[in-house]
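Closing statement on the pyridoxal-5'-phosphate sub-project.
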Amino acid sequence: MTDAAHFDADAFAARAADITPGGVNSPVRAWNGVGGHPVPIASATGAHVTDAAGQTYVDMVCSWGAAIVGHAHPQVVDAVQRAAAKGLSFGASTEAEIELAETIRARYAPAQRVRLVSTGTEATMTAVRLARGATGRDLVVKFAGCYHGHSDGLLVAAGSGLATSGVPDSGGVTAAIAAQTIVLPYGDDAALTDAFAEHGARIAAVITEAAPSNMGVVEPPLGFNELIASLCRNEGAVFILDEVLTGFRAGPAGYWGVERDAAVARGSEPWVPDLVTFGKVIGGGLPVAALAGRTDLMEQLAPIGSVYQAGTLSGNPVAVASGLATMSLLDDGFYGRLGSHSDALVANVSGALSGASMPHAVGRAGTLASFFLGLDTPPTTFGQAAEQDQDAYASLFHSMRNSGTYLPPSSFEAWFLSGAHTLADIDRVADAVATWAVSRP
Ligand code: PLP
């Protein structure tokens, strides 16, 4: 480790690229979408990250959503330390993993049974396998711009990471696998109805992000998730709702809870997904994800059913301790504050852009928000999201970095807040946006 005063960013970038492809362990961390090389992070507390050169930033990445209570929250760190002291991994059941599963079900009614895994990718991959096993069908419908992790069949038209890497679809996904995924434009009722009319008897599952957040944040058109639910129910397909990013972040019961509450307020019956996937928040920064859903489907998983899934580190005790401690901090007051801080972020950043006549649109879904520079109206499809001004975003990213805000290095991402962000942090972010906007190239 080099001390901050002697840190050489160019030398580090060369060293990293010499051992790790592209210098990063996940492509979204590269700065392909904004130019330059990432400076490694050395530490983080609360709403702030500090890089290896000693610069501290307001963090708007928050570990891509996982750090919902802020970095190194004392209660979470204490729980992790206490769990670690009792052993890092047993490869056997623990009481704590059952408690985390119960915590998820208590907050999210459709999660009748819960299986813990380590990554969102595993959760969605298993959900698709389970849907195929349960229905005996082969096809899966997904929507362009939605990301569901990097299992082969779901890596088609998969949003942010691929968009900023300049590859529409991943290499290495065989034509045979891609042919089992039907990709439709997001929010297009007619395309979805037509797909069922043409292929209904072969469709095992429809998978969607509860609210797309990997092409920027896109609010689902009214009734779209409900249409998926009813088509799946009528046609015998499984509705997989991906809440890996939105779960316990967009609202107390994820984005499903946002739509459930709106349906109840309208006096209608809320729609219900068959399977749900979680990640990020439920591990609070350590690797925990989950597949959950209807009992009759979930009980087709091994060891009681025929659909196999397993993991050496599934339900890892240290990761579960982090998840439980994090979830225990997420009460009504927490979500109330997160919601009002999201409102403040949107109002202040949007005001700063408007004040400098910078055209932009705001994407919102519950407490999630993102900003599309150069668009007049919030997009509902990946095609529309891709028309945003990515050069302007790159310029904003570097200007913000220089003045102390760490934005996602891609214009297709949410600007994440945590419970540790104060109104002063949000003002600092908005002031930096204003500074960029008035003097932008
Ligand atoms: N699903 C969604 C909606 C996501 O945003 C992500 C990751 O960003 C995943 C699945 C994959 O999760 P992981 O990166 O833990 O594999």
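The chain has 15 helices and 13 strands. With this model delivered, the sub-project is considered complete and its resources will be redirected to Aim 3.
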